[in-house]
Amino acid sequence: MTTATARPLRAIPRSWIALGLLALALLALPLVLRSDSRLNIAILVLVYAALAQAWNILGGFAGQISLGNAAFFGIGAYTSTVLLSRWEVTPWLGMLAGALVAAIFAVIIGYPVFRLGGHYFAIATIALAEIVLTVFNDWEWVGGATGMLIPFARDIETGRPTNSLYYLQFNLGKAPYFYIALALVVLVTVVTVIIDRSKLGYYLRAIKNDQDAARALGVHVLRYKLIAIAISAAFSAVVGTFYAQYLLYIDPETTMRLELSVLIALVAILGGVGTVAGPLVGAAVLIPAAELTRQQLGGSGNAIDLIMYGALIVLISIFQPNGLMGLVRRLRHRGGPRPTAPPSEVQALAREEAPLLGGYEEERG
Fold first, then answer.
1. pTM of the model
2. CA 168 to CA 184: how far, in whole Å?
3. What is the CA angle 174-80-175, rounded to 5?
4. Cα torsion at 165, 168, 173, 177 (round to 10°)?
5. What number is the average pLDDT over the span 295-315?
6. How many Å apart are CA 37 and CA 193, to the nearest integer?
7. SS3 150
C-alpha cells in the first residue's frame, strides 16, 4: 500500500511540488505577519513584482527598454479614481477602463517612438513620461499637483470606515489587499508564461536579438512591438488602480515620477530580464531592502535609496548583466558536465542569457 501511494507522488514533478508549497506559504503569510508595517512591505513587493512583470513583456522579451512605464501606472490610477469620485463607478470597472485607456495611449505613443532604436527609445520614453507628469500637474479637473482623495467606504448605520469589495476598500485590515495583489501577480505571471510559450514570445525574442533579421524572416516588427507595449501598459494600469485604492490618495508625483519608472525597470533587471521568474525574484530582494532602509533612516535618508539604485545598476551591468536568475543558472551548472545539446539548442540557451541591451550577435562581439 505504501508503494502504491509513493509512486503517484514520485510522478509529480518537483517543480510542481515546490510551486504548491510556495503558494501555501504565500497564502499563510498574512497570518504570520501580524505587524501592519511588515504586511505593507509584503504588499509592496507584490505590487512591484506585478509592475516589473508587466515591464518585462516589453523590456525583457521585446528588448524595448522603457523608462516611462510609470505613466501607464498613473493613467490607470487616475482613470479609476476619476470614475469613482465623479460617477461612483466601482474600481473594478475603473480598473478595466484604465487598462483600456493606457493600452490605447501606449499604442498611440508607441507608433512614432518605436521608430527610434536602442538608447534613443529609452530617452524618448523618459521625455513622454515627463510630459504626461506635467500635464497632470497642471490639470485642475483631476486635482492638479495637489492630487485626489478617494473617500472612505463607510458603514451605512454607524458611518465608520468599513470594508467594501464593491469599492475595493478594506479599512479594517490589510490582508485582503495582500490577497488581491497576489492575484494580480499570478494573473500577470500566467499571461507572461503564455506569451513566453507562444508565437508572440518567439517573435518578441527575435525582435530583441536582431530586428532586421526578424523583419527579413517575415515578422511584422512594429505590430508585435505595439502588442507588447499595449499588454505592458494595460497591466501597469491595472496595478495603478489597485495602488490608488490601497493608498486612497493619488497625485502625479506619487504615481508618475521618473524614480518609479526606474525602480520598476530595476526590479526586472536585478532579477533577470526576459525570464518569467526574474521580476518576482528582483522584487523579493530589492523592495524589502529599499523599504527597510527607508524606515531605518527616516527622512534623513531620502537619497540613500537613489544611491542604492544607482550602485545596483552599476554592479549588475559590470558583474551580472543577466540578473539574479543568470547567477542561479550559473551556480546550477557549475561543476556539472558541459551541455551536449545540438548547436541550435546551445544558441537558444545563449539567446536566453543575452544581456539587457542587444542580442546574441552583440554579445559575441
1. 0.85
2. 14
3. 10
4. 110
5. 67
6. 32
7. coil
| Extended beta strands in 213-321, E state | 249-250
The Cα 79–Cα 16 span in angstroms is 38
Domain locations along the chain: 36-257
- Please answer whether residues 265 and 55 qualify as being in contact, where contact means their C-beta atoms are separated by less than 8 angstroms: yes
Q: Report d(CA 14, CA 92) in Å as an integer.
A: 37
Give per-residue pLDDT as tens, 117-154: 778 888 999 999 999 999 999 999 999 999 999 988 88
- Grid cell locating 142: 483631476
* Residues 34 and 91 sit within 8 Å (Cβ to Cβ): no
Instruction: For residue range 223-281, list pLDDT tens digits in order.
Output: 999 999 999 999 999 999 999 999 999 999 999 988 899 889 989 988 888 899 999 99
Distance CA 93, CA 99 (A): 10
127-159 exposure pattern, b = at least 16 Cβ within 10 A, e = fewer: ebbbebbeebbeeeebbeeebbebeebeeeeee
Which residue's C-alpha cell is 490618495?
Answer: 249
Q: Is 109 within 8 Å of 129 (Cβ atoms)?
A: no
Q: All 3 cell numbers of residue 100?
A: 483600456
C-beta atoms surrounding 258 within 10 Å: 14
Strand pairing category for 163-164 and 169-170: antiparallel
Classify residue 61 by its DSSP letter: I
Decide: residue 11, CB within 10 A, 0-12 exposed, 13-18 middle, 19+ buried. exposed
Report d(CA 13, CA 22) in Å as an integer: 14
